[in-house]
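quick one, 628 residues, struct below
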Amino acid sequence: MRILLVEDDSSFATIIQELLSQQYYLVDLAYDGEMGWRLAEAFEYDLILLDLMLPKLDGLNFCKQRRQKDDRTPILLITGEHTSTTKVAGLDAGADDYLVKPFDLEELLARIRALLRRGHDALNPVIEWGLLQLDPSNCQVSYGEKCLKLTAKEYALLELFLRYPQRIFSQAALLDHLWSYDEPPSENAVRTHIKSLRQKLKKAGANEVIETIYGLGYRLKERVTQPLNVQSSPSISNAKKTEALNLNKIWQKQKHKYFNRISIIEDAIQSLKTHNFTLEIQQKALREAHTLVGSLGAFGFKEASEISREIEQLLKVDINQNNINFNNLSTLIETIKQQLNYRSQQACAPISPQSPSRSLAFVKAAQLLIVDDDQGLAEVLVTEAIARGISACASYSLQQARQKLQQNSPDVVLLDLSFPESTESGFELLAELASQTPPIPVIVFTAKESFADRVKVARLGGRGFLQKPISPAEVIETVSNVLQKSQCNVGKLLIVDDNLEILDWLRTVLEPWGLELILLDNPQQFWNILEASNPDLLMLGIHLPGVSGAELCQVVRNDPKWNDLPVLMLSSDRDSEIVQQVFMAGADDYIQKPIVEPELIARVFNRLERSQLRRKIAAQCYPRVFKT
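---
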């Protein structure tokens, strides 16, 4: 099941995302209404979790406009506003349900299940396929007496096939259903998960559950004697589900954000004492108090959440009246701090479930290195990156950065250009990173506005230029986009050439760029290797023993499964008729020998990126084709 969560409090959103992920839901995050709208337009969701107080497009208008577009996706509103007027307004706007912060996590899960049941005839009953059983109430899969240990993606794949036994799912459709928008895999990832799921099913005794419909995709194999059945099954209690949620781990990762919010409120109280309390300070403190109401409740700090609500009400006064009781505010804040410091372990420690917990397979977090002499700003960016699932660390000088780069190579670098206490600027480090093989993507982040600097950054291979001041959320959003493009570049290449020296040279040139290579010098084995390896790009020599590269290209283009596979031809032949023959056979590009290394790398990545972009655009423009 795919859920869209639209919530401007990144830490609170991360809590909900992690908890729902542990229940095998796929969750996309949006931090403002406009971002949520774009995601709702781009993807099909089973449920939308929507905060009312959102920047750019508030929850009420978001809800109204979705309903005006005849979007019937269930919407659950989440907000700290608990007045009946607000609730009525939300329901009148088209929301299906309304949940007030703070709320019990088991109540959130129960409401989600109830809303999803309305869109699906049977969410909780056990699904059967012969001896194979899938129980959505506890996310368990068994075959006969054997319990299968599946990863989150494998479980989601199997559930999708069992729920829609007659439907053929293309690889693009599976990507759309089971991967979030900021988790871009290649279509090869689908094949990998399908293969792993089939192996686990076969090991348990369930053979031929999922069949491949060549040229179309995958579906559940028909069984005349053992049809798909659904039977009722008692669901696991909400309390036991909540026990399995490791809140303490999430709290330890996020708690510094809440102490930062408390510090902002304390600063506001201090400004009251010194008669420097302004409307801006008041609004900022109100915003932080409102956030604490919902977030602390989600961690189990019920009393601290109620105290935060009381603080919020005390701050909602006319500042010109000067009648805010700052002594009372100080006492309430101190009480919250004590509870978080001394009761966090008791309030959030996970209760061990009676049955062994299932381990989920998580993708290793991308690594970000921030190089900036503004320590405060760098720490904020590290916090924002971690909240978005990116592992981040900071260096406050170019020397520190070089030391960290020697120890570990990050996936992306966020680099300031100005270091007043150093004799060099960030340009020197940018040039060093650009000269590595492969180069580390660098985003420049500077307060200096200079067109000449922008040109210089572009010449040195910079992947972005951000002008300070800019919000941390926008910075990390840019980092995420660069990471997404970089990760999309990785692919698998099948290279066919009878010249062993050429194959060895290609391995030396391409492998350092993170590409997986399958090298073949015998074209008679081509089709078997193609089927077994599932490459993302094919590179063929033109003159091969027994068969030409153009003929192999034509064979590939004649097969529905492979007719979109990018093909690069390698040849020292400059004859125009040969070149024409190559392209008539369906080749995408023609590279003449002797091969120039930078040109080869550029052409390979260009084809990989264009292929991925073409699939993405096709899936968006022709959703019915790609979802059948």
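The first helix runs from residue 10 to 22.
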